[in-house]
Design goal:
Helix content: 55-70%
Number of helices: 3
Radius of gyration: 36 Å
CATH topology of the largest domain: Hemagglutinin Ectodomain, Chain B
Distance between the termini: 88 Å
Shape: elongated
Strand content: 15-25%
Largest sheet: 3 strands, antiparallel
CATH class of the largest domain: Alpha Beta
Order of helices and strands: HHHEEEEEE
CATH architecture of the largest domain: Alpha-Beta Complex
């Protein structure tokens, strides 16, 4: 016998009991769904907390990794300063600093950190124009000078290179447009 047939038989025999049974059945179903919903909500909150904790741990591990790579550079700097205190010449100190600088850049490059190479043309995605210089000697939007270096991590620009760019001179009062 199907559930519909059972309900029809119950309705014919005892209408008050059917209503009470139906109310009881729906109440139980509501309680079960409410309990399930609360459980899902609690599980989701726990998931969010776990995800946040995992994220913090990944960041901590990444920082630890990079700091571990930087320790030899710090050791080299300390040795260089100690050498100066013990009477090393300026030339030796300078050579040592250049080697440490190269070592640091090699480490940073290996981790995906690069200085933005400034080409001949202005690139608004990697450069910030800090000054426009009117000149006929260069093409429009040629980079004339790098004021500050720019840096990127993999393909993301962290700091654009600040540059001076060439622009064509304004035509003055003869009706031509000025920039």
């Amino acid at each position: 016998m199907t559930e519909n047939e059972k309900l029809n038989e119950m309705v014919e025999n005892k209408p008050e009991t059917v209503e009470e049974d139906l109310i009881e059945k729906l109440t139980k179903e509501k309680e079960q769904l409410t309990k399930y919903l609360k459980q899902l909500k609690a599980e989701f909150e726990n998931f969010k907390k776990d995800t946040l904790r995992d994220r913090e741990m990944i960041l901590k591990n990444a920082n630890e990794y990079l700091l571990t790579k930087l320790i030899p550079v710090l050791d080299d700097l300390e040795r260089a300063f100690n050498a100066v205190e013990q009477g090393a010449t300026f030339e030796d100190f300078y050579k040592g600093m250049k080697l440490i600088y190269k070592k640091l850049w090699k480490l940073l490059n290996n981790e995906g950190f690069f200085k933005i190479e400034v080409g001949q043309k202005f690139d608004p995605f990697e450069h910030e124009a800090v000054e426009r210089i009117e000149t006929e000697e260069k093409e429009e939007y040629d980079v004339l000078e790098v004021v500050e270096n720019g840096y990127k991590y993999h393909s993301k620009v962290l700091k654009p290179a600040k540059v001076k760019v060439a622009v064509k001179p304004s035509r003055g009062d003869n009706g031509a447009q000025t920039v």
